[in-house]
Amino acid sequence: MDAFNRGEDETGVQTKDIIAIDGGGTKTLLLRVASDGSVVTARRAGGSNPFDVPDWRKVIAGLMEGQQSQLAAAAFGMAGFGESERLNAELAAAYRQLCPVQHSLHNDADMACRGAFMNRAGVLLLSGTGSMAWGMAADGQTTRIGGWGSLFGDEGSGYWIGRLALSILSQMIDGRHERRDDFLIRFAAARRWPEDSTLWASSLYEWYASLTEQRPAVAALTAEISRFAEQGCETSRDILRHAAEALSRHVVAARHALGASDLPWSYGGGTLRSPILRENLSQLLGAPLVPRLPPIGGAVLVAAQLAGWHIDEGFVDTLSLALERQI
Question: Is 307 helix (H, G, I), strand (E, B) or coil?
Fold first, then answer.
């Protein structure tokens, strides 16, 4: 837990704070924010997507422990919310129990879009463990594209990229794909596999057998693929090009659904930290807008509005600077 200066009024009396949570497939972040936009507390935990993490309640409860006092409002952006009536009810019930003050529960993509565009029109492309786009038109109409999960889609996501990389790797090992040693050797070295390539098949099986949470572990391979690509690995560059093509279709479909082909786009999620992936997307979609706030920033804005706070550029600047140190 990281603590910062706590908000006080002009008399030095401690003021109430707000809480924001961004719950995704691989990580969950809680922020406690003071009325001037400074971050009082930041806590991190593993993923809390109810579709992937059976113990999602435990993750959220752990983050909320000891945070219920001196609260003005809270807002929660959760992966999976809005996709299942049963899970919607379970999430709402869990937060009612954990949060004693007024609060708002949204899909994490909705919150992320609010933060990126400061509630203005645009299409936010998200790629983390999963992938989707959330768009909002100037008249407030919204649309959601993708986000179907790994069984049906999540094209261009971290899991999709990791799985494609593993598929190519296995095909190279057994001869169904042209062998490219720059990819094979880099991957083996990252896993600390034996230098003897005849042992890589068994090493791959052993790595797979060791996974406790498959989707997050496979999605985490994206950071390595991006690093290999930056080092000149052509196979990795090919994988990221395919991912960019898949992701770009989310933005095109969102613009079409909202009847605005010129809507600006922005990005969020760990997968899109890859500069090569963003470069490929820019070639397909035009240059993106840099998100004004990261995904959890949207939840902070919603909570601040619930609390009746005045949100000005000073608040946003203070919050943005604090988040740069945290994320």
Answer: coil
The answer to whether the CB of 49 falls within 8 A of the CB of 269 is no
What average pLDDT does the chain have?
Answer: 89
Count of CB atoms within 10 A of residue 322's CB?
A: 22
Query: 83-116: string of b/e by CB count within 10 Å (b at 16+)?
Result: beeebbeebeebbeebbebebbbbbbbbbbbbbb
* Residue 134, phi then psi, degrees to nearest 5: -125, 125
How far, rounded to the nearest angstrom, does the alpha carbon of residue 33 sit from its chain's CA centroid? 20
Query: Is 26 within 8 Å of 46 (Cβ atoms)?
Result: yes
pLDDT digits (tens, 9 = 90+) for 282-294: 999 999 999 999 8
**Backbone dihedral region for residue 283 (phi beyond 0: left; psi -120 to 50: alpha; all else: beta):** alpha
pLDDT tens digit string along 219-262? Answer: 989 999 999 999 999 999 999 999 999 999 999 999 999 999 99
